[in-house]
Amino acid sequence: MSITAPRHAQRDCQRTAAVLAFIAEYQTRHGYGPSLREIAKGVGLSAAQSAQYHIDALVARRQITRTPGIARSIRTVAA
């Protein structure tokens, strides 16, 4: 018997990875970070608040940084 994560947890993890990839690509292409609305639209989320959930997860994992109160301050962290 193997232990697997619930489907919603796997889906969240995949979406969070997609958000990280979108941010990295956007940052490379434009030279600055995307807005929450652009992230939501870019990865197929229904609302900017949904993007915020994934941004918070990435900040907690220290995969991105964000300066509160500064627009487009989302940056990927170099590995």
Task: Please give a structural write-up.
With 79 residues, the chain is mainly alpha-helical. The chain has one domain: Arc Repressor Mutant, subunit A, CATH 1.10.10. It is 57% helix and 5% strand. The chain contains 3 helices and 2 strands. Strands 1-2 form a two-stranded antiparallel ribbon. Helix 1 packs across helix 2, helix 1 crosses helix 3 and helix 2 crosses helix 3. The radius of gyration is 13 Å and the shape is globular. 19% of the residues are buried. The model has no long low-confidence stretch (mean pLDDT 89). Pfam families: LexA_DNA_bind. This is LexA repressor DNA-binding domain-containing protein.
Short synopsis of the structure:
The protein has 79 residues and is mostly helical.
Spans where pLDDT lies below 50 across 5 or more residues: none
Number of domains in the coordinates?
1
Biggest sheet, spatial arrangement of strands: 1-2
Largest sheet: 2 strands, antiparallel
Protein name: LexA repressor DNA-binding domain-containing protein
Pfam families: LexA_DNA_bind
InterPro entries: LexA_DNA-bd_dom, WH-like_DNA-bd_sf, WH_DNA-bd_sf
Domain LexA repressor DNA-binding: 14-72
